[in-house]
Amino acid sequence: MTSVLAVDLGGTSMRVSRTSPDGEVLERREEPTSDDATRLIELMREVAKGGPVAHAVVGVPGRVDYGQGRLEYAPNVPAVWVDAMDEGKLSADLGLPVSLANDADLAAVGESWFGAGRDFADMAYMTVSTGIGAGVVVGGLLLHGRRSMAEVGHTVVDGEALAEGRPATVEELGSGTALDRLAKEAGLDVAGKDLVNQVRAGDDRAAKVLTRVVTAAAIGAVNLAHLFTPEVLVIGGGLGLNGDLVLDPIRNLLETRGPRGLPTPIAVVNAALGDDAGLAGAGAWHRAFRPEAASR
Question: What per-residue confidence (pLDDT) applies to 36?
Fold first, then answer.
């Protein structure tokens, strides 16, 4: 069976797999992300030896110019990656056709075709992790123009903070990075998963920090719902996959501040594919992505 060579490039790690057309991750390799872009090419070549691959899909953490086939802006990876992530360069190095994808777009396709959104026509995906990203799939097709879109993480939600030069965006206030920053400011000596564990153990100070962060993320999710009116909001990411600690605040805010008068409320569920959402999405990328939307 011919598979797709899938890549999920992140600020912390880079993962490569062979993925079947039905989204099954057949083989997976992972290494820390460095400032050596050539190592990714080597890793892709190593994984490609495991079986026949028709093409590659590379998910990157930033704004993608789909018309030009290149990474345009990526604040959370070393600058060398912006120049290296170019479809033409990658195709020449690998000897395979390569498609670049925004990582949240790719994960959205994975969840829509093979995961938590597969029973819905219209789905919005939001990852709440080190940063916050989003992708929207309508009728099985990724919503995009020349560039990747739905960057709800960079939308401003606190005008007063913006005027004063303080964190003001959904990502600055509602991400895993924000959680660690606010925990430190609160005098807590825990962060990330350890802080969430403290919340589950009944720590009031940790709970207050988490509530601030999750409330900001929930505002971003509700804004996403107003912009695209999906049937389902799928929440993923390291922080987002904490079940009702994250989902309930989103549901509650969606009920009071979300789109009104819908005959069926927007469902809010966790991603089903976890960290593999982007790798799985590569299996359906060429069916979900409309090249003509990027070339107008």
Answer: 87
For the chain, list residues with pLDDT below 70. 296
Residue with tokens 């009728």: 139
Using alpha carbons only, give the angle 37, 42, 44 rounded to the nearest 5 degrees: 100
How many angstroms separate the CA atoms of 97 and 82, rounded? 19
- pTM to 2 decimals? 0.94
Location of each CATH 3.30.420.40 domain in the chain: 3-103, 116-272
Rounded Cα distance, 172 and 177, in Å: 7
Phi/psi region, residue 125 (left: phi>0; alpha: psi -120 to 50; beta: rest), is beta
pLDDT digits (tens, 9 = 90+) for 188-208: 999 999 999 999 999 999 999
Question: How far apart are the C-alpha atoms of 26 and 16, rounded to whole Å?
Answer: 10
> From CA 36, how far away is CA 117, in angstroms rounded?
36
d(C-alpha 249, C-alpha 201), whole Å: 19
Distance from C-alpha of 94 to C-alpha of 258, rounded to nearest angstrom? 46
DSSP state of 62: S
CATH of domain 3-103: 3.30.420.40
The confidence score (pLDDT) of residue 55 equals 96
CATH superfamily of 116-272: ATPase, nucleotide binding domain (3.30.420.40)
Whether residue 107 contacts residue 96, with contact meaning beta carbons closer than 8 Å, is answered with: no
Which stretch of DSSP H or E encloses residue 176? helix 176-185
Residues facing 56 on adjacent strands: 5, 98
d(CA 263, CA 188): 44
Q: What angle do CA 75, 40, 293 make, to 5 degrees?
A: 60
State residue 10's pLDDT score: 86
Region at 192 (left for phi over 0; alpha for psi -120 to 50; beta for the rest) = left
